[in-house]
Amino acid sequence: MTSTNPTTSALTGTWALDPAKTTVGFRTKAMWILPVSATGKALSGEATIGADGDVKGTLVIDAASFDTKNKKRDDHLRTGDFLEVGTYPTITFTASSGRAVGDGLLEVTGLLTVRGQSRPFTLQARVKGAGGSATVDVEVEVDRSLWGMSWAKMGAGLKNQVAIHAHFDRA
Questions:
Q1: How wide is the angle at C-alpha 41 spanned by C-alphas 70 and 43, nearest 5°?
Q2: Does the pTM exceed 0.70?
Q3: Per-residue pLDDT tens for 79-133?
Q4: Measured between alpha carbons, how far is 108 from 121 in angstroms, rounded to an integer?
Q5: Are strands 133-143 and 117-130 parallel, antiparallel or unpaired?
Q6: pLDDT digits over 128-160, tens only?
Q7: How far is CA 21 from the centre of its chain?
Q8: Which end of the chain is more exposed for a tag (fewer CB within 10 A), N or C?
Q9: Domain segments of the chain: what residues?
Q10: Which region holds residue 84: left if phi is over 0, alpha if psi is between -120 and 50, else beta?
Q11: Under 8 Å CB-to-CB from 101, ≥6 apart: which residues?
Q12: What angle do CA 53, 143, 60 make, to 5 degrees?
């Protein structure tokens, strides 16, 4: 980005993720209709917003932390059919650019790395900042088959809704 915008100008600087105040969740459907949801944990993250509005940053999620409240399903999520956490313990989004697309709304582009495979990924984030803290809220659909996770039982969807509420403090 090359021009300052109201969304990022007040947030110029370096930010550190507070994992304790950050939530990660996903939703999908099993057998076409049964909702399945899970929560996970962010491990680390940081962001830098330049005076010109340029956005850079990372968010690292613990792939083994997803909890659906069903041990058998959680154990299966950790296998090679899905996240293969023994080999790939983290999921990482690395933001390489961002631009304001509305009041408090940023379009962020970067790479999403799952199971050791990085793919270009764009998302929209609602950003709110006050004083020394900022929150970033994202809801995005992810087609897991793009990262080699195509296992499905009785019509389970390959697309998952991912919701992240990230809390950052000025570094």
A1: 150
A2: yes
A3: 999 999 999 999 999 999 998 888 889 999 999 999 999 999 999 999 998 889 9
A4: 8
A5: antiparallel
A6: 988 899 999 999 999 988 888 887 765 555 788
A7: 14
A8: C
A9: 6-170
A10: left
A11: 107, 124
A12: 50
